[in-house]
Amino acid sequence: MKIIACYSNKGGVGKTASSANLAHLMAQSGHKVLLCDLDPQGASSFYFRLKPAKKLSEDSFFTDQDKLLKAIKGSDYENLDVLPANMDFRDFDIFLSRLAKGHSALKKALKGVKKDYDIVLLDCPPTISMLSESVFSCANWVLVPVIPSTLSERTLEQLLDFFTQHKLEKSKILAFFSMVQVSKKLHLDTMQRLGEQHADLLLNTYIPFSSHIERMGVNRAPATDFAKATPAAQHYLDLWRELATRI
Amino acid sequence: MPRLWHSQGEGDFTPLLSWLENKAVQRGLVLSQTEFLSGPLALIDNGDCQIAEQGKSLLRLSHKLLSISQRDIYPLHRKDQPPFDFPLPPRELCERIEQPPAWLLGLAPLRNLQILARGKGRYQQWRLTNRLHKTCGIIYLLDIELNGISAQHFCFCQTYRGFTKSEKLLTSWQRYIKDVFPGQTAGVSEIVALYRRHPLVVHHANTSMQKGRPDIASQTKRWLKPLLLAAFSNEQGIILDIDTEYLHQYRVNMRKARSLLSLCKGAFEENQQQHCANQLANWMQNTNVLRDLDVHLQDQVTYQQILPPHLHCQADKLRHNLQKERQIAQQRLSDQLQSTAYQTNKQILMQSIAQLNDGDKGQKPATQYGRKRLIRQLNKIFVLTGQLHDQSPDDELHRLRIALKKARYLAEFFQRPKTTKRLSVLASSLKQLTQDFGLFNDACVQQQALHGWLDSARAIKRPPSENIEALTLLLRYYQEQKRQTKYKISQHLRLLNDPNHQSALLAATQNLI
């Protein structure tokens, strides 16, 4: 089982949209996928028409395997299940900081689903916290959407510094440009500059800014399903193909 | 991820949906129909029933393709708009549907898919959704009415992980169905059994050895009958010209039967045996022209690749002429196969085989006879191999090819069900060798035909230069192909010529059968 975390310290960069679309594409290509919504806002769950997992509190998530398994819901797509989030997930940090082995708690919790899935995709909340450390420790790959703008660039640098300080494997990080507007010179310049600086961790495929991705909330389905012929969905397909060669 | 259960039998499940609808409302769920299809139904498989062999059934209902098995049902989505017309090569079907399943991708490419049974059908899809319009369960209902069997009704239910309300509801509905229609039987196998009787479905000859210590005469009779029936089962496919595999299998089974008769000398009275073998040889001879034309036409793609672009039209012309010739040959063979004389001779031959009298060696144990015969055949191969050299004419290689084929048949026939690994290794290595020889033979056939065409083209008063250029290039290509295959065969033969290998092979055969 491979664990892929979709993470960025900055909000609104397309983590959830990327998680939902990639999870759908992975499942379509025959992998058994669990999309784990760790963000208390529960946007991933919303995209798949799922109610929050009321009975799964922050402590039962990490300590009660049965409850965790029962909270998993089947999506409308073959091979794709979702672990919906709920507001209790906002207390993950407090709970993990109390644990002696908080770093490895997520890895331990996900052991229970190992036999059921080929890929677990973690849709992470935008924080650098104890939960993030636990995510970095258990994930085989950390997928980072980056908007080619100053603030988003800054958060990528912060993440790299964090990995250096905590002696984490930087090779786990795979970044890609998200919400790209090729008509903006700033976007093109930033993409070129970052591409030169971080050629090793940046994927070649970028995701364009698209109204079809925004409409995921209206259709409550991945764009790769309801708008599969659109450029945005095609870019996600390219991203998955590139990712598949790396993982 | 969906979980499935199913129920099937002669009871119509549709009226029971109102029960489910009422219960769903009580649980805050909505049951609604999301798909409905009704119309003519066709059951599709190839002549070997390879889809049925995998426990699947492929249906065309109106213009939709559905896959059903004892466990699941799903539609195969088309990539393009035109409807599927059968017969259709499996590769072409795979190219025309989205994400073709593994059981379809693995079908033999030479067997076309065709309609083996027709009837009427109705397909419905119902969904159980919650307040968020999330699907919690799907119900597929399929009603099949075919000529010859009573209507079959299938119900497949798919539940989604974590939706316990819906799962419990569908489980109780399943119990309700069982109460209303107790003792439902499996339906997919009944449908498959129906089309297995279709004239385009071929028989497979069971050529395993009898248990105990059978004598060679009775054992050979037991092999001959299924081989001939398997050959005859391909006739309808040849007549309708579904695909070239029918003719190939007709010839393979005939050849095996004829080889058996010629190999098992002394098992039956010689004149009877000779008469049967001659009859088979005559029938096979009638198919030679069509077989050769099939070989040429299968190589047409290669023609396009070999020839430079300015000569592609010559390849097209050649194909056109070959197709015309093939049409004539196919018609001639079809007429022969449908003729009263052939049908009568078939019956006479089957009777003759049943009435074959034992020869002087007829009572010998089959295994002992087979062992001696295989050893003799291997010795013959060693002698023929020893006589070969680089400049040997094609005829000598052809003789060796026939000897190898006969040895392969002997090894295949006389291997016991629990045969030791070495004998099956011998049989498979002989098969590999005969396949290489087959390629050599195909190249010879091509070369011979091209020579003939070239001579005819040159005989014309004003020989067409482009045609001659194309034929010369093709001839050169096949000469080179023949040379390469000959070299490959010589590598194989080096091992066969090794005295140590020969004695090991003979010793193993001595002990193995």
Automatic annotation (TrEMBL), chain A:
<protein>
    <submittedName>
        <fullName>Cobyrinic acid a,c-diamide synthase</fullName>
    </submittedName>
</protein>
<feature type="domain" description="AAA">
    <location>
        <begin position="1"/>
        <end position="171"/>
    </location>
</feature>
<dbReference type="InterPro" id="IPR025669">
    <property type="entry name" value="AAA_dom"/>
</dbReference>
<dbReference type="InterPro" id="IPR050678">
    <property type="entry name" value="DNA_Partitioning_ATPase"/>
</dbReference>
<dbReference type="Pfam" id="PF13614">
    <property type="entry name" value="AAA_31"/>
</dbReference>
<dbReference type="InterPro" id="IPR027417">
    <property type="entry name" value="P-loop_NTPase"/>
</dbReference>
Automatic annotation (TrEMBL), chain B:
<dbReference type="InterPro" id="IPR038186">
    <property type="entry name" value="CHAD_dom_sf"/>
</dbReference>
<protein>
    <recommendedName>
        <fullName>CHAD domain-containing protein</fullName>
    </recommendedName>
</protein>
<feature type="domain" description="CHAD">
    <location>
        <begin position="205"/>
        <end position="505"/>
    </location>
</feature>
<dbReference type="InterPro" id="IPR007899">
    <property type="entry name" value="CHAD_dom"/>
</dbReference>
<dbReference type="Pfam" id="PF05235">
    <property type="entry name" value="CHAD"/>
</dbReference>
